[in-house]
């Protein structure tokens, strides 16, 4: 018999039922699964087609549930999930995370979460297929020992992929499917921020890059070298402070006329190399169209915010938000955001690709913990990379614009990005709303910059 989801009962009981328990039925949802990579059970990738059917008689917000795929990593050091399609290539209403387990056929699980933009799933309805990919940093794994594995190539009801209440413990809040036998370990809970939180904040209210307060904190690059088009210059004149209403912004530009001699990049990085674990955040405006000249899709360029050590360091690390408005790096002309954790001492660097436009203002929040790096855009988790890519030493904060390759020579064109503010909290992991509240409080107190990071 189908279980009817009783909204009034849920509302009445929500204050007394533990988060790990569910008032709803364990057969409210059925997962349908097909293996898109059934021909390769022993390779470096999982690709699963996952659909969710609502078995109740009421519409249910998808944001109230999560889906968990259970697997073994077979000794791989990286487990990197990605959504490759759901209603559109962007998967914009989905985020993914991973957790550890100790169960038959599972030492990891991948969790699929839905944002409010996913809407509700009508009674009796089934979602469009989610194309879930999991990669292992190039390592070969044996999928056949995964609890959730099946070799079916058509959608089939599959109890080994489970549905739970959003926010529940890994084995709690079961709404559909059958759990693996054993136990799971929830992700670690972050401690509350200390009362004497060490912070770095800059509102970029300077008169210009020659302002003494600016040069006390930041360096504008002028020396030659990579990344980008070999022989291009890194020009101090490509960095400026601009007014927008009552606000001031830092603007970075990159220009070209299609020749190396006519190409210039820009970079601004902190004077201090003192940022390691904590919350990195910035509000940036990415732009798909040029500041001047005609957009040339063959100009492949990068707008970026990141943290890094000197590349010459034996402990080199880097965590990147890299937006390619005209595509590139194998993406054709499709605008793509790359979220990447680099370590030159590792054979592979995990990277999530968001293949859609990010033109406009966005708040980027990166959590760098000893356990790994978690990338958020506008409050939604977009990538989660494991502990082997956590930095070993302190890093710089950095903004850049540079060309990967150039289009045909001809008229000059200048591309640009704007930065509203940047914020760092040492050894504290703040969500996007909390970061925005911190910035608003600093602005309300007329504090244009703050640096208490030792």
TrEMBL record:
Compositional bias of kind Pro residues: 185-195
CDD domains: Glyco_hydrolase_16
Cited InterPro entries: Beta-glucanase-like, CBM2/CBM3_carb-bd_dom_sf, CBM3, CBM3_sf, ConA-like_dom_sf
PROSITE patterns named among the record's database cross-references: CBM3, GH16_2
Keywords linked to the UniProt accession: Hydrolase, Signal
GO molecular-function terms, A-Z: cellulose binding; hydrolase activity, hydrolyzing O-glycosyl compounds
Ranges where the record places region Disordered: 165-195
SMART domains named in the record: CBM_3 (SM01067)
Domain of life: Bacteria
UniProt signal peptide: 1-24
GO BP, sorted A to Z: carbohydrate metabolic process
Ranges of residues in domain GH16: 147-430
SUPFAM superfamilies listed in its UniProt record: Carbohydrate-binding domain, Concanavalin A-like lectins/glucanases
CBM3 domain boundaries: 26-176
UniProt family annotation: Belongs to the glycosyl hydrolase 16 family.
Protein name: Hydrolase
Organism phylogeny: Bacteria, Pseudomonadati, Myxococcota, Myxococcia, Myxococcales
